[in-house]
Design brief:
This protein has 319 residues and is an alpha/beta fold. It has helices at 2-8, 11-18, 22-35, 57-70, 74-83, 90-99, 160-173, 192-200, 217-229, 243-256, 268-274, 282-292, 302-318; strands spanning 126-134, 137-144, 150-155, 180-183, 204-207.
């Protein structure tokens, strides 16, 4: 291009012959005049100064501190920073750790050939459980099997009355009708008052078998996440704290902003929006409840025998 320009002496003719813009040719002519033939060589596109660096020395030291004290991975550190109004991707956190040659966290090798079980319709099955935070502070948790949207509240006890209050909060918070509730055999769930309240809202009661907490695995796992990523960084011995309002803030962050690995990196709310068209209307759910002829289940082992007989009869019908 420089040779043709010297030959023709015209910027327009040179640009037409070379098929480039005149502004591009002017830029090369300027570089040739200032630096000679060396100015025509390619330059690095790397910026000399970053005006808006995301990772400041303060954030970098916080990342290293969280890794040292909490033993968190890049994704959990990213979630923690996001909750504190600092948006840093997990990949950026990983680069910081790699630059400082931080050794990876050694964890037990997970089974790789498992099949993840998920319901396809929001509200088709909601798992419920309760965990103790401190004296007179119990966290009730409900998580949707399909979307992982969850509701959490803190009550001073885990009586049936608290469970019924939590049920009302859960119905109000979930953006879909609940078809089934799955719990363990704790007396706070497996009682006549709670079952009657479920029937009032056309919700089926499905307790798991005794001594099988893995069947309620999603709610068990999310409560572990709550304690690891949220409650462990709060001084629960401070009696002046409003734990319920703090739980609500964590619930909103978990549902709307925290990326979930089992959802392919989506948030629970994004997952819900992707399957929102599958949600049935309440009259359909109510009709299915009436057709199932649900009964109040007594809290004894006769229920297990009834459940076995019911499964056998269903298998015979299929055959």
């Amino acid at each position: 291009m420089a040779e043709i320009y010297v030959e023709t002496g015209s910027v327009t003719k040179t640009a037409l012959r070379c098929g480039i813009a005149r502004s591009t040719l002017y830029r090369w002519i300027k570089r040739h005049k200032e630096y000679g033939e060396k100015g025509l060589s390619d330059k690095s596109q790397r910026p000399q100064r970053l005006a808006n660096m995301k990772v400041t020395p303060k954030i970098e030291s916080l990342i290293l501190e969280l890794r040292e004290t909490r033993r968190w991975g890049a994704q959990r550190i990213s979630n923690h920073l996001l909750r504190n109004k600092t948006s840093i991707s997990a990949m950026t956190v990983w680069r910081v750790l790699r630059r400082h040659e931080v050794k990876p966290v050694v964890r037990r090798r997970r089974k790789s050939d498992y099949i993840r079980y998920n319901k396809e319709v929001p509200g088709e099955r909601v798992q419920m459980d309760v965990t103790k935070l401190r004296t007179r502070a119990y966290q009730f948790t409900a998580i949707d099997d399909c979307t992982r949207l969850k509701v959490i509240r803190v009550y001073p006890n885990k009586k049936a009355s608290s469970t019924i209050l939590f049920l009302h909060e859960m119905i109000a918070d979930f953006p879909f009708p609940i078809q089934r509730v799955q719990t363990d055999w704790g007396t706070e769930f497996f009682n006549y008052d709670f079952q009657c309240e479920l029937h009032e809202h056309f919700i089926k009661f499905r307790p798991i078998k005794p001594r099988t907490p893995h069947l309620n695995g999603k709610v068990e796992r999310t409560q572990q996440t709550d304690k690891t990523e949220f409650w462990n960084i709060i001084d629960l011995s401070d009696k002046s704290l409003d734990l319920n309002s703090m739980a609500l803030e964590w619930q909103d962050f978990y549902n709307l902003k925290r990326h979930h690995s089992s959802l392919g990196g989506m948030t629970p709310w994004q997952k819900f929006k992707s399957v929102e068209s599958l949600v049935p209307i309440q009259p359909v759910v109510s009709e299915a409840f009436y057709e199932s002829e649900e009964e109040i289940i007594p809290r004894n082992y006769e229920y297990l025998n009834f459940y076995k007989r019911k499964n056998k009869s269903e298998l015979k019908k299929r055959k």
